[in-house]
Amino acid sequence: MTRAGRLYFVLFLNLSLVVALVAVGITAHSVGVWAEGVDYLADAAGIGVALMALRLEGPTRRRPAGRPGATRYAALLNASWLLVLSLLVAADSALRLASGTGRVHGLPVMVSSAVAAVVMVVGTVVLGGDVDDGDDASLSVRAVALDTAGDAAAAGGVAIAGAVIFASGGLFWLDPAVALTVLVVVAGQALRLLRRLRPSAT
């Protein structure tokens, strides 16, 4: 599969999950599931940027050498978007923990998040063919792969929290707590990618 083909496939996976996860998050009163849906929407935007960058960097009749560095900017934008989104949802999770978490329906949280985790693992495997490439163009795909792996971990964490909530009939605070914990990890991944990109920009 080509690099663009990998990106289009993962874009389809993300868009397929967005509506379902946002709906489940709202009806189940789960900030974790809602955050997954919003995160996948942000991922779709990041993949769109990466696809645009690949098109710009490729040679054309007017610009035979393409636009070198376009994918680097796409990777930078994708990592920055992930960081901002993570901070916003983390703030909402912290607010729920501080003010008291309402009832969360554990079963739909567990099922939807488990499905999302499996789908994101598939997406990470599909993108894995470009992660070890040494060319500059692979950076945007690497950013998307990093984000997709973080999404799989986040979905897994939310699924476990949903299972505990369902089994116990309580412990609703686990939902924003696990969302906050996973978002801190994902934000750290984005910061590491931004640090790797910084020397190339100077």
What do these coordinates show?
The protein has helices at residues 3-27, 31-57, 70-99, 106-131, 138-168, 174-201. Helix 3 (70-99) runs antiparallel to helix 6. The protein is mainly alpha-helical and 202 residues long. The protein is built from 6 helices and no strands. The protein has a single domain (3-201), classed as Alpha-lytic protease prodomain-like (Up-down Bundle). Helices cover 83% and strands 0% of the residues. The chain is globular and about 50 Å long.
Rounded to the nearest angstrom, the distance between the terminal CA atoms is 33 Å
Number of domains: 1
Shape descriptor reads globular
Top-tier CATH class: Mainly Alpha
Can you summarize the main beta sheet?
none
Average pLDDT taken over every residue: 76
Radius of gyration of CA atoms, rounded to a whole number: 18 Å
Outline the low-pLDDT stretches: none
What is the helix fraction of residues, given as a range?
Answer: over 70%
Return the CATH architecture. Answer: Up-down Bundle
Assess the beta-strand content as a share of residues.
under 5%
Give the class from helix and strand content and strand pairing.
mainly alpha
Secondary-structure element series:
HHHHHH
**Tally of DSSP β-strands:** 0
Count of DSSP-assigned helices: 6
CATH topology-level fold name = Alpha-lytic protease prodomain-like
